Every structure is written in structure tokens, then in C-alpha cells.
């Protein structure tokens, strides 16, 4: 699973570079696009494995339809950019940037999200331990305070978006950020744990009662993944 | 992009607060957490739907309509009233920081209330006279002038709806000023149409507007919404007969 993400993340980085207009046309060979083509990662568990907290139907649509649409949109944006740059049409290439950001962000965010989750009878739920627990305690006061702040951040999103536990690489501290729509977490922040607050992530099961979804999802958070990202960052 | 100044003007013009602020003494406020009614002010309320929850079937299911109106729209109204009450308290207490902090909540929930109020009225049960563009003679002729035909306008409008990234709305508006041209605009989240543009009709592209019935197939929702557009309301708004402005219902 991690390797799937690593395989596709450079594609996005390359695409973001490609969307700039610094490079001469010849540098943008179409082969780099083919090599960087994004694919839908497999889920590391069954669609029904997160029940009763997230229904199998939600997981199936979310992964096989929504995430797939971002993958397709990303590849088509990359293709448009590669083609435009190969013809020296840099303005046209740059105009695709919003689509690249949206679909590329959607692909990266969901790839990170699936890894953040695990069945409650396996790695899912509970509380972090070790260095991650220490960092959460020191930067938020306690795990419970962190959890409450994350839920407040999620509830405060006006529209579609995500909330993330991040590590600030320059300060070395943990923090919470929200992102609108599919804007990815970038800059000094390393995403450790993301929660999808788009309505498609919960509506079939929770309808307008999104606070219940934000409570339930803690039962299926995979703290091992979060800890691994924390230690690597 | 939203001009927050225009929104304030809009809310001010339609506000139940009016100039009663000055009559509130700070002593009344010091208890905190009063609601608008306790302050002697009329809160906003959820407007009744002009048709039954199941009236738009099979294009929009009764379950969607009931949740959308009874829960989502109600939440915007409730949260708008709560934010306005806090704002009144903050004004009375001279707490400028709190007033600023509340602006986003007022804008979001106020926008949600305005947008949904406009939306319900620009829909009508399929097969009724209202859903026949023939009842909107002046509007349709303006549309044909601008887009060539009603069909190509629908295509352009649908494409704009499907291109929205995240939650938002698509609107046909009559531009401010003497030119009075028609234009398709999209707004994000609950940003309302502002700047003097007159909304003719809007389509809610939040996932809650279609998900229970259409799932990820939003193109089908967009295709079917044309069966329930209320062209009579659209015509009234286009020629300036729109009740909303006269009765300040929002
Ligand atoms: Fe999602
Ligand atoms: Fe809505």
C-alpha cells in the first residue's frame, strides 16, 4: 500500500513542476507522463471491514468511484499538460493547474486516507503510544484534547474539505490544519492523519448528522500508520 | 468572487435587527447567551416549501427534500440566528474582536439561508405549467439572444455545474446595471450571489442535494434538474416581479 502511494506521489510532484513554465519545451518528453501515470491503489482491507462505523457501501463508492474519478482527472490533466508543453503552449499548460491541483490533491488525499484507516478488530481505534503519544501530549495537552480539537476543526469546515494532523517540519511540532476541497497539505507540513469531511464520506450512513461520523471514525483510525509517518518525517 | 460589503448590505436590508441595537442596554446583555427572541428581535425562520416533500419525484426524492429542507436549511437558519445573537451581544459589549470573529459564521449561514430560500422557489413539480419554459417568454428570448438557443444555454449551465470543485452553487443571474445581460456564475460553499446581480435561478451542487438518490452520478442529477426548474419564478425574477425583494422574506 505504501509503495502504491510512493509510486504515484512523484507523479504529482513532477506534474506540479511541469505546470510551471520555467522549463523549455524539449525537457517535457511525453515519456515522463507515461511513467508517472497515477493508478487507484488497492484498499488494504475489504469494503465492509470498517463497519459499523463506515458502511461497506460508502467505502465502495468512495474508493471505486470517487477516488477513481480523481485518478482519471489527474491523468487527463497530466496528459493535457504534457501535450501542451511538448508543443510549447505554456499558457495552455499553466491553465490546467487548477484541475491538476484538484484531481492530484484528491488522489493524494484519498491515498493517505485509506492508509489512515483500519478495521476496529485489527489495528483500528484506541490511542497512539510511544513517541507519537508523547508528541501529542506535549503539543495538545492530551490525546482527548487533540481529538476534541480535531473534531471541532472538522465541524467548522464550511463546505467540502479535510482536516489533518500535521507535523511542522521547521518547528518540529504537531498541529491541526484544514484544507478546502481537495487542496493537498504542502509546505512545511507533513500530513500524518487526514479525515475526509466531504459529504460523500458519510452521507449514505449519517446524512446530515456529520458530528456522529466525526465521533465514529476514531474507532477505525490506524495509529500504526500515523506513528510510522511521524517517525519518518 | 464575493464582495462581503454587498452581503452586509443585503443582510442589513433584510435583517430583523434593524436599528433596535441602540435600544439594548449593556445590562441586558451581560448575562450572555440570549437568543434573538429574548432580545426582543425577530429571528429568521425556515420558509415553508411551496410544495410537498415528494412533489419533485422522481427527479429529487422525498427523502432528499425532507433532509435538505427540514435539516440542512433549518441548520443554516438556527446557526444564523445564533451567530446574529452573539453579534448583537458583542456590539452591545463593545467587543470588536468577537464581532469580527462572527462575520464568517454570519456570512456562511446567512448565505445558506438565502441560497436555499431562492432554490426552493425556483423549483416546481415536474409536468406542471411552471416547468414549461414557455411561461418565461421574456427570459427565454433573452437566453436565446445570448446563447443562441435554450438548449445550448442548458448545456453551458450544466457544464458550469459539473465543473464546480467541491461544494457550491450554479446560478443564472441578471447582471447589475443598465445592460441587464444574463450570465452564468458559480459560487463556492454558501457564498451568495452579490454585487447587485439578480439571481434568476440556482442549482445546489452540494453533495447533500443529490447523494442519497444519485450517489456519485451528479451528471444525472444535473440532467434531471431541468425537469423541475420553475420557469415562472425565473421569469418573475427576470422582469423584476420577484416577491423576494418586495416582501423581504429572506
Ligand atoms: Fe472523499
Ligand atoms: Fe443545500
From TrEMBL, chain A:
InterPro entries: Fe/Mn_Superoxide_Dismutase, Mn/Fe_SOD, Mn/Fe_SOD_BS, Mn/Fe_SOD_C, Mn/Fe_SOD_N, Mn/Fe_SOD_N_sf, SOD_C_sf. GO terms for cellular component: mitochondrion. It comes from the Eukaryota. It catalyses: 2 superoxide + 2 H(+) = H2O2 + O2. Its cofactor is Mn(2+). Mn(2+) binds at residues 62, 110, 196, 200. Destroys radicals which are normally produced within the cells and which are toxic to biological systems. Belongs to the iron/manganese superoxide dismutase family. This is Superoxide dismutase.
TrEMBL record, chain B:
Its cofactor is Mn(2+). Its main location: mitochondrion. Keywords: Manganese, Metal-binding, Mitochondrion, Oxidoreductase, Transit peptide. It is found in: Mitochondrion matrix. It catalyses: 2 superoxide + 2 H(+) = H2O2 + O2. One of its GO terms (molecular function) is superoxide dismutase activity. Residues 137-237 form the Manganese/iron superoxide dismutase C-terminal domain. GO terms for cellular component: mitochondrial matrix. Residues 44-124 form the Manganese/iron superoxide dismutase N-terminal domain. Its EC number is 1.15.1.1. It is an enzyme of class 1 (oxidoreductase). Destroys radicals which are normally produced within the cells and which are toxic to biological systems. Destroys superoxide anion radicals which are normally produced within the cells and which are toxic to biological systems. Belongs to the iron/manganese superoxide dismutase family. Homotetramer. This is Superoxide dismutase. It comes from Thermothielavioides terrestris (strain ATCC 38088 / NRRL 8126) (Thielavia terrestris).
Amino acid at each position: 500500500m505504501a509503495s502504491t502511494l510512493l509510486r504515484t506521489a512523484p507523479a504529482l510532484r513532477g506534474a506540479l513542476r511541469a505546470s510551471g513554465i520555467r522549463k523549455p519545451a524539449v525537457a517535457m518528453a511525453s515519456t515522463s507522463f507515461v511513467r508517472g501515470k497515477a493508478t487507484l491503489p488497492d484498499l488494504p482491507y475489504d469494503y465492509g471491514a470498517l463497519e459499523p462505523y463506515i458502511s461497506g457501501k460508502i467505502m465502495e463508492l468512495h474508493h471505486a468511484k470517487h477516488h477513481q474519478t480523481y485518478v482519471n482527472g489527474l491523468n487527463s490533466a497530466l496528459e493535457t499538460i504534457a501535450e501542451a508543453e511538448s508543443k510549447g503552449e505554456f499558457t495552455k499548460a499553466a491553465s490546467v493547474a487548477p484541475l491538476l491541483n484538484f484531481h492530484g490533491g484528491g488522489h493524494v488525499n484519498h491515498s493517505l486516507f485509506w492508509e489512515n484507516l483500519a478495521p476496529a478488530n485489527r489495528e483500528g481505534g484506541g490511542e497512539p503510544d510511544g513517541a507519537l503519544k508523547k508528541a501529542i501530549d506535549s503539543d495538545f495537552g492530551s490525546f482527548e484534547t487533540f481529538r476534541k480539537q480535531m473534531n471541532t476543526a472538522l465541524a467548522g469546515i464550511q463546505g467540502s474539505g479535510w482536516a489533518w494532523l500535521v507535523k511542522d517540519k521547521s518547528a518540529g511540532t504537531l498541529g491541526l490544519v484544514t484544507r478546502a476541497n481537495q487542496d493537498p497539505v504542502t509546505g512545511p507540513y507533513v500530513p500524518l492523519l487526514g479525515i475526509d469531511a466531504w459529504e460523500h464520506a458519510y452521507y449514505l450512513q449519517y446524512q446530515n448528522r456529520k458530528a456522529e461520523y466525526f465521533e465514529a471514525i476514531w474507532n477505525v483510525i490506524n495509529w500504526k500508520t500515523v506513528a510510522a509517518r511521524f517517525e519518518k518525517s | 468572487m464575493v464582495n462581503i460589503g454587498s452581503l452586509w448590505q443585503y443582510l442589513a436590508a433584510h435583517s430583523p435587527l434593524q436599528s433596535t441595537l441602540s435600544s439594548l442596554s449593556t445590562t441586558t446583555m451581560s448575562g450572555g447567551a440570549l437568543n434573538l427572541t429574548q432580545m426582543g428581535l425577530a429571528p429568521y425562520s425556515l420558509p415553508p416549501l411551496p410544495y410537498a416533500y415528494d412533489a419533485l419525484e422522481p427527479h429529487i426524492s422525498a427523502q432528499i427534500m425532507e433532509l435538505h429542507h427540514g435539516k440542512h436549511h433549518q441548520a443554516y437558519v438556527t446557526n444564523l440566528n445564533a451567530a446574529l445573537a452573539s453579534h448583537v451581544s458583542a456590539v452591545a459589549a463593545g467587543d470588536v474582536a468577537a464581532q469580527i470573529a462572527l462575520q464568517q459564521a454570519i456570512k456562511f449561514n446567512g448565505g445558506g439561508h438565502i441560497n436555499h430560500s431562492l432554490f426552493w422557489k425556483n423549483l416546481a413539480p415536474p409536468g406542471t405549467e411552471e416547468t414549461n419554459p414557455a411561461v418565461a417568454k421574456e427570459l427565454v428570448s433573452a437566453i436565446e439572444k445570448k446563447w443562441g438557443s435554450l438548449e445550448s444555454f442548458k448545456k453551458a449551465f450544466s457544464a458550469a455545474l459539473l465543473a464546480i470543485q467541491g461544494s457550491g452553487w450554479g446560478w443564472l443571474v441578471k447582471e447589475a446595471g443598465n445592460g441587464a445581460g444574463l450570465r452564468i456564475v458559480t459560487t463556492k460553499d454558501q457564498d451568495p450571489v452579490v454585487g447587485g446581480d439578480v439571481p434568476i435561478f440556482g442549482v445546489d451542487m452540494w453533495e447533500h442535494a443529490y447523494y442519497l438518490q444519485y450517489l456519485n452520478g451528479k451528471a444525472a442529477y444535473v440532467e434531471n434538474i431541468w425537469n423541475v426548474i420553475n420557469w415562472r419564478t425565473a421569469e418573475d425574477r427576470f422582469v423584476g416581479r420577484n416577491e423576494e425583494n418586495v416582501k423581504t422574506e429572506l
